[in-house]
Write a structure and sequence with these properties.
This protein is α+β, with helices and mostly antiparallel strands. The chain has two domains: 173 residues, de novo design (two linked rop proteins) (Up-down Bundle), CATH 1.20.1440.130; 122 residues, Glutaredoxin (3-Layer(aba) Sandwich). The protein is 54% helix and 7% strand. It contains eleven helices and eight strands. The strands form three sheets. It has a four-stranded mixed sheet. Strands 1-2 form a two-stranded antiparallel ribbon. Strand 1 and strand 2 form a beta hairpin.
Amino acid sequence: MSRRRSTPWIHRWSRVLIGAIAIIGALTTGYLTFTHFQGQPVACPTSGCESVLSSQYAKLGGLPLSLFGTLAYSGMALFALGPLAVNATENRELRKKLEESTWILLLIGAISMVVFSAYLMFLLFFKIDAGLCIYCIASATFTVAMLLLTFLGRDWPDLGQVFFTGIVVAVVASLGTVIMYAGISGKTVASSTGSPGFLPITTTSGPAEIALANHLTQTGAKMYGAYWCSHCHDQKQLFGQQAAAKIPYIECDPNGANAQPDLCKAAKIQGYPTWQIQDKLLSGTQALTELSKVSAYTGPQSFKNLVEGAVPPPS
């Protein structure tokens, strides 16, 4: 009499584990997306997080990369946990069909995310050189874990087909990633402030913006940033071309024009942009009304661009 082989624990729990990791990833990237649109600094014990999230590599098509990460993780969670919502006793065939179809989707999704994460790790350590970014490393760890659980989480009937599919998906994902970033890597243009920058300042200044910029300069305020920082660009967009040229700006990246990295280190700047107004440090893109309040500016307040979202996109 033969004894039925018990199901390995990893086969029983693989979908739950993949779903749990995907949900954590979606919550993490969702938080980063929220802070981006709110113009707030992220909670991070190192300076690398804000530097990476402010770089030109942190956006695709004008949207934060974290938004796409949220969608990808949410899709993985749906593929992993969706079939489990079907009652196996009452709808056995439907449950089986859903599990079969979603396993291949999990495999494709996990491989694509690992390839993309690998490229982001390359950018982190060799292009941005921003130090430790715990969100980036955590996301890369999540994607690798989901791929391992997908591969080990079931008895694949044809391993040869699995490896062939994996190679095709990896090649396509690699080409897609390179193409998406082809217009970004190594590309800079001249900004209106005379420093190299990824995007030019396209908004115009009104009398209020110019008056505020002059006031900030006269009172000794400083804006610390980097030429590649997208949030720094957003801040300059709020001021407009004419006022942005008057901002008391300090370039922190050694490769930027008129760089003063020693001043940034002395001020213990951990993210860009950071405003130093008297004894206060303000991190992230600041509304002009907030800069007026903190710096005790009493001039005209009829600012043309009040919030980041009101800034027209570069042409």
